[in-house]
Amino acid sequence: MHRAVFERRGLDRFVHRFFAPTLDPGDETVTLPREEAEHLTRVLRLTAGDTVAVFDGRGHEFLARVAATERRDVRLRIISRIEAAAEPAVALTLVQAVLKGEKMDDIVRDAVMLGAAAIHPIVTARTETTVAALRTGARLDRWRRVALASVKQSRRATLPDIRTPLHFEDFLDEPAAAIRLMLVEPGTSAAVEPIGALRKEPLPPDAAVLVGPEGGWTEGEWTAARDHGVRLVTLGHRTLRADAVPIAAISVLQFLWNDL
Questions:
Q1: Sign of CA dihedral 237, 238, 239, 242
Q2: Pairwise CA distance, residues 153 & 150, whole Å
Q3: What stretch(es) of the chain map to CATH 2.40.240.20?
Q4: Tens of pLDDT, residues 103-146
Q5: CA distance 134 to 124
Q6: What does the alpha-carbon distance between residue 87 and residue 42 come to, in Å, rounded to a whole number?
Q7: Domain 91-256, what architecture?
Q8: CA-CA to 134 of 20 to 30 Å: which in 63, 127, 182, 191?
C-alpha cells in the first residue's frame, strides 16, 4: 500500500508515540504490546478515532489512528509514514561500568537521548555489583524500560540495544568496533591523547567509548585495554564525576564527528 511521507514539522505538539516491535512497514494495521496498550487506554485515555504515532524501534515511524480498543488489546490503522529523526552517522556504543544507585538509570536515559546506538554495562574491579546479580535482578529490564521512555521523549524511531552485562575482561575479547576509546582521568600514568585528536581522523563507521566506575580504572584495566587496541583518551584537565563523564564524552564525540 502506498503511503505519503508525513513531515514531522509541527507533529510533536499533539501526537503521542507508541512502540510496536512487530510492526512491518507494509502493514495496514498493528496491535500494540500489552504495556503500550494499557498506557494508551488507561493513562492517556485515548479511544477509537484518536491520532497517534507508532514506531518499530528499527527506524520506521508512522502516523496512525486508533481503530479499536478492546479490553487490553489496542489495534492501530496505519495512515502514512513519518520522517523519523536522523540517527547519528557514527554508531556509538557506550560501554559503561555500572554505577551505584539510580545513576545508571540517568546515564541510560541521557545516552539514549543523545543518540547512542547501544549501551553495554560492564563490571570492573571497582564496580560494587556482580555480573550474576545484574543478570538475575531487575536492573537490566529497568534500563530497557528507561531506554524506551527516552526514545519516545527524544523522538527517535530506533531503540538502542541494552546489552547483557559482562566482566570488563570478557568485554575486551568481544568483536571490536572500528574505534574503541577508554576515558581515563587526568594525571593517569599512562600515555594518553586528548579526545580532540579524533578531529583530524576519518569518520569511523562505528565506535565504542569505555567509561569507568566511581574510583576510576585500575592500572591493570587500562593496561589490558591498551594491549587490546583500545585508545586511552582524556576529556581535559579536570576530573569529572563518574556519572558526568559518559554524557560529556558522547557530546564531544558527536561534535567532533559533526553528529550534533
A1: negative
A2: 5
A3: 5-82
A4: 999 999 999 999 999 999 999 999 999 999 998 889 999 999 99
A5: 13
A6: 32
A7: 3-Layer(aba) Sandwich (3.40)
A8: 182
Beta bridge partners, 29, equal: 77
Closest by CA position to 245, among listed 126, 97, 129, 88: 97
Contact 102, 218 (CB under 8 A): no
For residue 196, report the phi and psi dihedrals to the nearest 5 degrees. Answer: -65, -15
Identify the architecture of domain 5-82 in CATH: Beta Barrel (2.40)
Alpha carbon distance 44, 96 (integer Å): 34
The one-letter amino acid at 175: P
CA distance 138 to 102: 13
State which amino acid sits at residue 151: V
Per-residue model confidence (pLDDT) at position 1:
42
For CATH 3.40.1280.10, list the domain ranges present in the chain: 91-256
DSSP string, 72-141: TEEEEEEEEEE-PPPPPSSEEEEEEEPPSTTHHHHHHHHHHHHT-SEEEEEE-TT-SS-HHHHHHSSHHH
pTM assigned to the model: 0.91
Q: What is the DSSP secondary-structure string of 60-74?
A: -EEEEEEEEEETTEE
Three-state SS at 201: coil
